[in-house]
Amino acid sequence: MTIDVPTTGRALPQLQPISFIGPDGRPTDTPTEGLSIPSDRTLTGLYRQMVLARRFEAQVTHLTRQGRLATYPSAAGQEACEVGATTALSPNDWLFPTYRDSAALLTRGVPVGEILSAFRGDWHCGFDPQEYHTSPAATPLATQTLHAAGFAMASKLKGLDAATLTFLGDGASSEGDTHEAFNFASVWQTPTVFVLQNNQYAISTPLREQSNATMLADRAAGYGMPGIRVDGNDVAAVFAAVSAALERGREGDGPTLIECLTYRMESHTNSDDPTKYRDAEEVEHWKQFDPIDRLETFLRDRGVLDDARVEEIAAEAEALAASVRDAMNTEAEVDPTELFAFVYGTERASLSEQRAQLEAELAGAEA
Q1: Taking a C-beta distance cutoff of 8 angstroms, is the pair 337, 359 a contact?
Q2: DSSP for residue 12
Q3: CB-based burial of residue 307 (10 Å sphere; 0-12 exposed, 13-18 middle, 19+ buried)?
Q4: Quick one: pLDDT at residue 367?
Q5: Chain centroid to CA 340
Q6: In what order do the strands lie in the sheet containing 256-261?
Q7: In degrees rounded to 5, what are phi and psi of residue 18?
Q8: What is the pLDDT of residues 311-338, one digit of tens each?
Q9: Which residues are known catalytic residues?
Q10: Dihedrals phi, psi of 164, to nearest 5 degrees
Q11: CA-based nearest residue to 70, from 145, 169, 128, 139
Q12: Strand 192-198 relative to strand 256-261: parallel, antiparallel, unpaired?
């Protein structure tokens, strides 16, 4: 007996990642799913932003080791994912980042002091989400995926021209929240782009011990949405894929899952020792896929980037690093009673009592 099974026409992603620029900086001959490589002007801007992000990550990591921040999860090596995807957003779109997406916040225009405020324990978020159309960076795994889908649904109901983009890691893709978000977004056809940064490790757990799927982008087909696999260290491919997915969402065609293959060069956080679960040879291997080096080679070969421009961008990155140091060397003015703010719309009696007790203790300490 033959049973005809209806399909939605969602094909599985191609196994070979979409890429325009190879690790050697030369154009690739891989299929690009009808996507177009960004203009030289766009690529130069992406190069600049990745250099700034790389210097920012290095400076913050040094300051964390000096005890200036409580903890920090570096995204060094993942700049193409974060810069490429975030640059594709329009001003009206909303970004829903994770704790590792400081490079995305920097690209979105959030000042360095406000990005790092939460890591230093100065404030709950550090920046105004409405000003930057960016949600607070989520530390609980995968909660931001539901926020992105829900916000997109609300925008759709209100008739707003706004898509949402959320980052998640390979580890977070195993969380129940992620699957609920995939299903909700697909059922309600929300304009949501899920950018899965597959950096090979969920803290110390390698990808091979997290999933037996051929690739994580395969999961999209099970929810009736497109899945795309791209070279996450090729910023041209990331930008092109995310731009197309955002446009698709705005046109009413629903969500897209984009798996970006990349690598976490630094430790999970400063409290992690990666030498316990991966060897130096593996890290060295991934250095040959560096997103900044390959784009610089590509742009130099095309004659749109020269030594003078490279030095100019490097100087700009050093100025950014100096501003990070200045921000972290300035003592924050913290009001302990702010712990009680934004907890309830109407403050409960028990919370009012606790606030009064703290205020009394603070007054006694000042006396």
Answers
A1: yes
A2: P
A3: exposed
A4: 66
A5: 30
A6: 94-96, 164-169, 192-198, 256-261, 227-231
A7: -65, 135
A8: 999 999 999 999 999 999 888 777 888 8
A9: 264, 268, 277
A10: -125, 150
A11: 139
A12: parallel
Helix (H, G, I), strand (E, B) or coil at 198: strand
Q: How far is CA 56 from the centre of its chain?
A: 15
Report the C-alpha gap between 294 and 288 in whole angstroms. 9
85's tokens? 């995807």
Asked whether the CA dihedral 50, 56, 62, 64 is positive or negative, the reply is negative
Q: Where are the beta strands (DSSP E) in the chain?
A: 94-96, 164-169, 192-198, 201-202, 205-206, 227-231, 256-261
Q: Tell me the two tokens of residue 328.
A: 């972290």
Residue 307 tokens read as 């030594």
Beta carbons of 21 and 28 less than 8 angstroms apart? yes
Say what the pTM is. 0.91
Q: Measured between alpha carbons, how far is 192 from 150 in angstroms, rounded to an integer?
A: 9
- Give residue for tokens 């897209």: 256
Q: What is the pLDDT of residues 41-66, one digit of tens each?
A: 999 999 999 999 999 999 999 999 88
Q: If we measure between CA atoms, which residue out of 172, 191, 198, 209 comes closest to residue 258?
A: 198
How many Cα neighbours within 13 Å face the side chain of 48?
18
> Any idea which residue has 């979409």 for tokens?
18
Three-state DSSP at 166 gives: strand
Q: Any idea which residue has 């080791």 for tokens? A: 65
- Backbone dihedral angles phi then psi of residue 124, each to the nearest 5 degrees: -65, -45
Number of H helices, E strands in the chain: 13, 7
Of 185, 167, 177, the closest CA to residue 256 belongs to 185
Residue that the structure tokens 């990550």 belong to: 57
Contact by Cβ (8 Å): 192, 185: yes
Strands 205-206 vs 201-202: parallel, antiparallel or unpaired: antiparallel
